[in-house]
Amino acid sequence: MLIGGLSAGALAGCGPTQPPPLSSEAVYTNNYFVPGVGYYHAPFRAWYALPYNHFDPQTQRYFYGGQWSATACQSITNISAPAPGIVQQAEAQRTDVVRGGFGSTSGSFWVYS
Hints:
The protein is an alpha+beta fold. Helices cover 19% and strands 20% of the residues. The protein has helices at residues 2-12, 84-93; strands at residues 28-29, 33-34, 38-41, 46-48, 54-56, 61-64, 67-69, 79-80.
């Protein structure tokens, strides 16, 4: 009985690790990437699909804060905390979080004795 309990406990820790949740209390640097959400733009306190100051060689423009510009953004802000509403949206879009649901083989178990 003890061996079964030990092996079950050991296997429970072998699953995928969950990344930490996003928080409006935490600070993130420019281009902090979250799968399914995008890149964090610290001066604008939000995530966007393209990296901060991404340059498009075809249009000769830079992307930052959800807009395109002829010049790169010159901001001294390279770390900030996102707004609470932004965190909720980003958390819902994440693709790196394992969410429970039907069809899962992991969960609780019991030993018949």
